[in-house]
Each structure stands twice: as structure tokens, then as C-alpha cells.
Write a structure and sequence with these properties.
The protein has about 160 residues and is an alpha+beta fold. Helix content is about 40%, strand content about 20%. The protein has helices at about 1-20, 70-85, 90-95, 110-115, 150-165; strands spanning about 35-40, 60-65, 95-105, 120-130, 135-140. The longest helix has 21 residues, at about 1-20.
Amino acid sequence: MKKNIIIITALGAIAVLGIISAFPKEDATGGQATGTAHSVTPRKDTGNMSVAMVPAEKVEVFLFHRTQRCTTCIAIGKLSGQTVQEEFGPEVLSGKAVFREVNIDEPENKALAEKFHASGSSLFINAIRNGSDNIQEDAQVWGLTGDAEAFKNYLAGQLNVLLGK
């Protein structure tokens, strides 16, 4: 009897967690979060249209890292740089898309690392709209480094959305 109660309680808890996880989550600004990134800098609302729907004037992709790097961090840098160059060549040439690797251990990069709240290896995307930064860290890329095509498709998709493509 006691065993049945434990099993029923566990199944009920699993069901509740499944229901809760099915509902969209809100990010720090009250908008729906995708689950792939979190907002570092509050976004400004432009009225009836969500900021996420307004194409960015410029997109900056930053891979922050330390001097001592693991193979995954190096792979993220390589794949991110390739994706931006291969998929957004015209935007790179016009300055609308930028990719940079930034060693946060170097003194000249301290202010940039502080601006992005980067304290270790991390990929940040800054969608500049109306001259304002909209900085997001994207942790999803860490799980995609084993599949270069999936990584590039994912990152290109994220950037296409931000650029309104």
C-alpha cells in the first residue's frame, strides 16, 4: 500500500512538471523567452511591436574566452567565425554583422567583458536597435559543437531572425 502511494505521488509530480514546462516562459523583459538565451541588458519596448520583431541595425557576435582554452571553446570560436563569414558576407562587408573573439584576460578587453558580464568562455550576441544594445548570451551553442552543420544552421538562424531576414 505504501509503495503504491509513493508511485502515485511520483507520477503526479512528473505530470505537474510536464504541464508547467509546456507553458512559455517569460524573459526578464516580460517577453517570451526561447530557452536558448537570456537577456543581460533590459530591452526597450517600441510600442505595439515587440523589440524582438524589429530588425537589428547591426549584429555583433562575441566569443569571450580566457587565455587558457578548452577544445570546445576553440571549436565555438571557429564555427561562429565561419558562420558569420560564410552566411553573412555582405553584412560583414557593410559592417552590419561583426564577429570577434575576445580574450578577457587581456587588460585592453576588461571594459568590453564587463559590459557583456563575461567572466569565462561564452558566446554573446548584441543586436543593436535604435542605437541601443540588446545583449544576449547564447548557451545553446555549447551542445552543438559536435555537429558543425547543426551549429552553423542554428547560429545562422538566430542571426537571420535578429536581422529580419
